Amino acid sequence: MEFVRNCWYVAGWDHEVRADGLLSRKLLGEPIVFYRGQRGQVVALEDRCCHRAAPLSLGRREGDCLRCMYHGLKFDAAGACVEAPGCERVPPKLAVRSYPVVEKDRFVWIWMGDPALADASAILDFPWHDSPDWRMKPGYLHYKANYLLIVDNLLDFSHLAFVHPTTLGTSSNAEARPRIERDARSLRIHWWFLNDQISPNHKRVATFDGPVDRWQLYEWNAPSFMRMDSGSAPAGSGAPEGNRVPQALQFRHTSVQTPETESTTHYWFCQAHNFRLDEEGLTERIYADVVKAFDEDREMIEAQQRTIDATPARPMLPIPADAALNQARWMIEQRLKGEREHARAA
Amino acid sequence: MEFVRNCWYVAGWDHEVRADGLLSRKLLGEPIVFYRGQRGQVVALEDRCCHRAAPLSLGRREGDCLRCMYHGLKFDAAGACVEAPGCERVPPKLAVRSYPVVEKDRFVWIWMGDPALADASAILDFPWHDSPDWRMKPGYLHYKANYLLIVDNLLDFSHLAFVHPTTLGTSSNAEARPRIERDARSLRIHWWFLNDQISPNHKRVATFDGPVDRWQLYEWNAPSFMRMDSGSAPAGSGAPEGNRVPQALQFRHTSVQTPETESTTHYWFCQAHNFRLDEEGLTERIYADVVKAFDEDREMIEAQQRTIDATPARPMLPIPADAALNQARWMIEQRLKGEREHARAA
Amino acid sequence: MEFVRNCWYVAGWDHEVRADGLLSRKLLGEPIVFYRGQRGQVVALEDRCCHRAAPLSLGRREGDCLRCMYHGLKFDAAGACVEAPGCERVPPKLAVRSYPVVEKDRFVWIWMGDPALADASAILDFPWHDSPDWRMKPGYLHYKANYLLIVDNLLDFSHLAFVHPTTLGTSSNAEARPRIERDARSLRIHWWFLNDQISPNHKRVATFDGPVDRWQLYEWNAPSFMRMDSGSAPAGSGAPEGNRVPQALQFRHTSVQTPETESTTHYWFCQAHNFRLDEEGLTERIYADVVKAFDEDREMIEAQQRTIDATPARPMLPIPADAALNQARWMIEQRLKGEREHARAA
After folding, report:
1. Which of B172, B316, B317 to mutate to test the interface with C (most CBs of C within 10 A)?
2. Closest residue to C71, CB basis, from B303, B308, B321
C-alpha cells in the first residue's frame, strides 16, 4: 500500500524511547529501532543490519552508536557502519538507513520521506502536552485496521450518537451537522450543541447541572492528525461568543495515527483538561473515560476491517454525513499524487 | 470457490436464532446476520452495512428493522434503508442484500441464489425433527475442511469399519457393497447386513441379544443433504421385508452441511429414535454416541484437508468403493454447470 | 523453494522412530510417515494415502505393512497397495511413494532424490554417536527459519564473540580469521586460538587453570552437515602439533539440518566428549550448555528470518567474514544446478 511519506509522523510518546533500551517499532511497513544517544537525543535507524538482516533492536547501544549483536557491525547515529569484523577500512556502502527525528510536545516525530524535504518547522503544535496550564495522561492504542478507517471515524462525529451513547455522545450528534472548512492541508470542523443535554463523560466531571452549550471544534491535518478544543459550559454563558466561564469544562484533545502496516495502525491520543488541576484522580478518570470510548470505536472499526476483508468487491455507498471524510480522503489522495510526481521528477 | 447457489441451505437450528439477539454466520463466504422480527419471523440480511461496511450484527434490532450502530442507518426486513442520518429522503440504492428465509422442521433455511427461483416447496422434509413419534437432540459441528470431503465421507460407509470400529461400524462395512440408485437430484444408498453382529452403538441401547439384521438406507440430495433410516432388529424378524418388530431399534438420521468458506463447513445433524421415548437419558446417550463417532470423522477429515493443502499437486486415485461419491461429485458439477448457464443467459 | 534432493538427509535420531508408533514428519515440504517393520527396520512412506489423501500416520501398522484407517487400504514397505476394500485384484498404480532409509550412527537417513542414485556408502560418518570412547546426549531443535540462515551461522564463528559471550565464545572470535579449504563437496574450516583465555563453556568443565590453546576444526558438507573437533588444552601443551594431553578437553560436535519447509527447519545436534566418561551429570551439563548457546542462535536467526520476510527487497551486503558462507551457498547452488541438469537429461 502507498502511504504519504513526505510528512512528519508521530513515532511515539517521548517516554516510550527510554534512556536505556531499544524500541523496535514498525512504521509504514518499515522496521525501525529507536534509542537515545549520550546527550539523550533520539536516534532512529532501520531495524535491519545491512549485512545479514539481523534486527539491530537485538543489538547493544555503545555511546551514540548501535552495535549489531550478530556479527558485530557498529553503526553511528547517521547509519554509517563504523566498525565491522575483519575490515580495516569499512566500505562506505555498509550503512543502514537513518531517519530524521525531532522531539516536540512530548512526541517523537519521524520523517520517512525524502530527507531533503524534512523541515522541522512544519511539525504541528500540541502545546497542551507539556503546558503547566493543562494536565493529561498520554494514551496509546494498537489497531488491527487500516489507518483510513480511523480517519473516517474521527471525521464523522455523527457516530457519537450510536457508538458512544454512554460516553462521548448524545442523541444530538445524530441530527446535527457540523460546519466544515477546508484549506490545502487541513479541515476545520465545528460542532456546536446549544442548550443541549450534557454528554455522559462531561456529566461525570461537571460541577454544575442543567443544559449546556457544548462544542467540538477541531482541525484535522492530512494524513492523520486531529487536534480538538471541546467542552461544555452552562447554557447561555457565552461559550459560542468565546466567553468560557470558570465552571466551563475545557478540554484539548489529541488523536494521531501512524500506519504500522496496511492492516494495522499505531494510535496516540490524550485528553488534556485545564480545570481542577490539583484534584486527585481527575486526570486519571478523564483518561479512563476516553479509553472506554476508544475501545468502543476500536471494536467497531476492527470489525469493519474484517468485514471489508471478507467482502472486498462490495461497494461503500455515500451518505451526506460523509462530507468531511470524503474531503479528507481526497486530500490524502492529492498528497499521494504529489509525491508520485515528485518521485518521477527526481 | 464456486458453490451451488440455487438451492435451499440450512442456516441453523431454529433455536440458534433467538427471540432477542443477532446471529452472525458466514455462509458460502458471505457474512449474514439473522434475527427475529416482531412476529418471531426470521430475517436474514447481509451482515455488512452498505454505507461503510460495519457489521450489522453489532447493531440493534428495532421492531422488524435492524439499525447499524456505527452511523445509524436503519434497514427493514427487505434490506431497504429506511433511515439515514442527515437524509430527509433516503436514496433507494441505500440497501443491503436480504435473503429469502423459511423455517421448517426446526431448521432455518436460506436461499442464496437467484431470488426468482426460490420455491419453498422444494425444501426437503425432515419430519422426525418435531414429530411426537420421534425424539432427538439437535447437533452442530464446525469443520476446518471443504464440504466436499464431508460429502465423500457420508457417501462411502466402508469407512465405518476403520474409523468407527467402536461406535457405528462393524467389520462387515469393509466387505459389503451397498445398492446405489440415482435420479436427477439424489442418490439412494441401501446397506443391509443380514444375520450380522450388532454395531457397538446399537448394542449400547438394545434390549435383545444375538445376531441382527441391520440397515442403513439413505437418500442423499445434492449438494449436501443426507436423510437416513437406520436400525437393527433381531435377525430373521423380517426387517428387510418391511416388518419392524417392537424390539427393533429404529433411527432417523440427519446430516446436512453448508459451506462456510472454501475451507470450513457448518454441519448440522441429529439421530432421532422412536423407541422408549420416555426413558430418561436415552436421547442424550444416543446423541453422545453420535458425537463421539462424528469427532472420529472430523479428526480424519480435517487431517485429510491439511494433507491436501500440503500436497495440492498429488492426485487422488479411485477405488471401486468410490462409486457413490463419484456420482455425488458429478451431480454437484452438473448443478454448477447449470447455474453458470443460467447466469450467462440472465 | 528448490532443495538439494540427491543426498542423504537426516530424518531423525533412531529413538525417534519407536518400535511401536508412527512418526509423522515433513521433510523438504513432503509429509512422510516413519515406522519400524517386524525386524525393527525403519520404513518411510509418503504420509498421504493415494486414494483420498488421508494421512497414513493416523493408520495402523500390520506387520511390515501400514493400513490407512480411513477406507482401509493397506500398503507394504515398498509403498505398494496390497489390499483395498472391494478390490479382488489391486491395480498396481495404487501405491504411495516409498523412500530409501538407512540407520547409521544413531541417525535415520533418508534419500528423497532419484532412487537410482541412492548409494548408502556416501552417508557421512559420525562415529562418536555410538562409540564407547565418547558420550553424548542427542539434541533436536525446531527452527522457524530457512535452513540456509542456519548454514550461514555455522560457517561464520565470528558471531561467537557477539551471540555467545557467556557460552561458546571469547572476544578472540571477533578478530581471528579461520583457515578455509574447499573441495568439491565440503569445506574445512580451522580456527586456532593460541595462548588464549578459555571459553566459558570449557571453563565450566575444565580441571586446569590458565591460558589455553583452543581449537574448532570442522568439516562442512553441502547442503547442511557439520562435524567438528573442538577443545581446549593448557597453552603450549602441544595441541596444534597433534599432542592432546590427558587434561585436554576434547569434543566432537554434530550439527545437521534438514529443511522442513521453505521457512522451517529440523536441526539435530550433539556435543560428544571423551573425558571423564563416568562422571555423573557431566554429559548432561555439557548438553545443557550447548542448548543454552543454541537458543541464543535461534533467537537471533528467527528474528533475522522475520526481518527478511518484512523487507524482502532490501539487499544483504557482504563483509570479509562471509568467505566461508559464500562458498557454502555457491556449493549448494552448484548442487541445485547439477540436479536441474540431471532432471532435464532424464
Report:
1. B317
2. B321
d(CA A232, CA A247): 9
Picking from A31, A71, A94, the nearest residue to C158 by CB comes out as A71
Name residues whose C-beta falls within 8 Å of residue C287's C-beta, 6 or more positions apart in sequence: C136, C137, C139, C270, C271
Rounded Cα distance, A31 and C65, in Å = 52
Find residues 44-83 of chain C whose CB sits inside 8 Å of chain B.
Answer: 47-48, 50-55, 58, 67-73
| Domain locations in chain C as residue ranges | 8-122, 127-336
Backbone angles phi, psi at A228, to 5 degrees: -135, 140
Residue C298: which of C140, C143, C138, C139 has the closest Cα?
A: C143
**Dist CA B80 CA B83 (whole Å):** 9
- Domain A8-122 belongs to what topology? Rieske Iron-sulfur Protein (2.102.10)
Residues of C with Cβ-Cβ distance to A92 under 8 angstroms: none
Give dist(CA C192, CA C214) in Å, integer. 6
Specify the CATH architecture of the domain A127-336: Alpha-Beta Complex (3.90)
- For residue B113, the distance in angstroms to the closest alpha carbon of chain A comes to 17
Structural element, H or E, at residue B215: strand B212-221
Q: Between chains, do C30 and B311 touch, taking CB under 8 Å as contact?
A: yes
Q: Do A72 and C177 touch (CB under 8 A)?
A: no
Mutation choice for A interface testing from B57, B70, B83, B263 by most A CBs within 10 A: B70
Q: Which three cell numbers stand for residue C106?
A: 544413531
**Strand intervals (E) in B37-86:** 42-46, 60-62, 65-67, 74-75, 81-83
Q: How far apart are alpha carbons A118 and A121 in whole angstroms?
A: 9
**Given C53, C72, C73, which is nearest B161 (Cβ)?**
C72
* B85 part of contact set with chain A, CB < 8 Å: yes
Q: What residue type is assigned to position B149 of the chain?
A: L
Amino acid in the structure at residue C99: Y
Which of C1, C335, C255, C300 shows the shortest CA–CA distance to A51? C300
Residue-wise pLDDT tens digits, B167-207: 887 777 777 788 999 998 899 999 999 999 999 999 999 99
Burial of C207 (0-12, 13-18, 19+ CB in 10 A): exposed
CB C50 within 8 A of CB C71: no
Does B127-336 match B17-100 at the fold level?
Answer: no
Residues 6+ apart with CB under 8 A from C186: C219, C220, C221, C222
- Give me the tens of pLDDT residue by residue for chain A, a chain 346 residues long: 899 999 999 999 999 999 999 999 999 999 999 999 999 999 999 999 999 999 999 999 999 999 999 999 999 999 999 999 878 899 999 999 999 999 999 999 999 999 999 999 999 999 999 999 999 999 999 999 999 999 999 998 888 888 888 888 777 777 778 899 998 889 999 999 999 999 999 999 999 999 999 999 999 999 999 999 999 999 999 999 999 999 999 999 999 999 999 999 999 999 999 999 999 999 999 999 999 999 999 999 999 999 999 999 999 999 988 988 999 999 999 999 999 999 898 8
pTM given for the model: 0.93
Residue B102 CA to residue A21 CA, distance in Å, equals: 62
- Interface contact B317-C26, CB threshold 8 A: no
Q: Does A5 touch chain B (CB under 8 A)?
A: no
Type of residue at C23: L
Residue in A163, A177, A318 closest to B70 by CB: A163
Superfamily of B17-100 according to CATH: Rieske [2Fe-2S] iron-sulphur domain (2.102.10.10)
Given its phi and psi angles, is residue C281 left (phi above 0), alpha (psi -120 to 50 degrees) or beta?
A: left
Partners for B (CB, 8 Å, 3+ pairs)?
A, C
Is A307 in contact with B69 (Cβ distance < 8 A)?
Answer: no
Residue of C nearest to B173 (CA): C85
